[in-house]
Amino acid sequence: MVEDVVRTLGFLCMGSRLRRIGERLQSDTQQVIDEAGLGIQAGQYPFLAAIDRSGPLTIGELAQAVGITQPGATRTIGQLLELGFVDMQPAPDDQRRRLVSLTGKGQDLVDHSKMVIWPRIAAAVADLCGDLDGPILEQLAAIEDGLAAVPLVRRHAARTG
Amino acid sequence: MVEDVVRTLGFLCMGSRLRRIGERLQSDTQQVIDEAGLGIQAGQYPFLAAIDRSGPLTIGELAQAVGITQPGATRTIGQLLELGFVDMQPAPDDQRRRLVSLTGKGQDLVDHSKMVIWPRIAAAVADLCGDLDGPILEQLAAIEDGLAAVPLVRRHAARTG
DNA sequence: TGCAAATATATAACGTATTATATAACATTC
DNA sequence: GAATGTTATATAATACGTTATATATTTGCA
User: What is the average per-residue pLDDT within A16-28?
Assistant: First the structure.
């Protein structure tokens, strides 16, 4: 068994570590989504959620809302357009802006997700790290160990009381 | 100002969020490295550190040590080979394995980094989140706010006492 | 009014991770 | 000891983020 340097080095490799755990968590989340038979990527959800919460948004606003750069938002919205979950139209007052809104299909997906999938994912993640406390490095270690022990797909809000 | 959905949705977007913060932290770390004039990428450091700690390792062991997949390790080691920081030779007993070791130049870089850069980075990250405590979502919020307020490059171990 | 600057989005080029698969070397088994 | 399976690394294809730059539209000012 080889030593996990990223873990050993602590604060020095904090960036790599957060990224690594985030990627792991996202791919585990993808499993939950796939299990439900929804044809969508985990990374696309925040865009739909943003529009659902705030109403039609421009590309730039979506980038800000999701916390990525504008080209990244342009790309993901392009995918969601192809999938038929969103619709895009120039803003009436400013032809540079593109207003992105949910289609009926997109709204259906969001509504269904809000009832079935999102609570499921949030509960699984809460089960993984909701009760943690203390220094961040210790919590990260607990999360890594927890995921290794019981993958996200098999977790539920088992916390009684 | 647009709402930060990833932050708002909490546990539901934990993966995206960790990843996002990790990327941010890593690119901030890169600034510190560049400031010191070292020609190396933040993501390459854990490989050098792993070899420095454990002695020559194979590609597979490096992948495990750093927590990425084997093709990722193959690529990064290829870069470090080009840069002259590591050397690679077939293992004497098993021609499939490639043992990766530090060159003189690589060892010099590690030794210098251990004295000057790594403590600097670890101190800056510790300044950012070393004193935090409590639920992880709150700590993540504090880290994001902290980075926005004072970037990593301008942080030092200012915690006195 | 007309032209320069600013803003919003799109596109291109790149970096670095992933999964899937190919190739080479070793191990096993009949 | 030749066929078969396993292991280690390399390569190809894909995903998704970034920075830099191009294009279109709007704004502001002489």
Answer: 91
DSSP track, B82-119: HTTSEEEEE-SS-TT-EEEEE-HHHHHHHHHIIIIIHH
The tokens 């941010």 sit on which residue? B24
Does residue B157 carry a pLDDT above 50?
yes
pLDDT of residue A157: 65
CA distance linking residue A31 with residue A40, whole number of Å: 11
The interface residues of chain B toward chain A in range 10-69, judged by CB-CB distance below 8 A, are: 10-29, 42-43, 45-46, 49-50, 53-54, 57, 61, 64-68
pLDDT band at residue B158 under the 50/70/90 scheme: low
Tell me how far apart the alpha carbons of residues A40 and A86 are, in angstroms, rounded to a whole number. 13
Point out the residue among B4, B9, B122 whose CB comes nearest to the CB of A12: B122
pLDDT in tens, A125-134: 999 998 889 9
Contacts of A130 in chain B (CB under 8 A): 11, 135
Positions of strand D less than 7 angstroms from a protein CB: 7-13, 15-20, 24-27
Angstrom distance (rounded) from CA A73 to CA A83: 15
pTM of the model: 0.90
* Chain C positions with a protein C-beta closer than 7 Å: 7-13, 15-20, 24-27
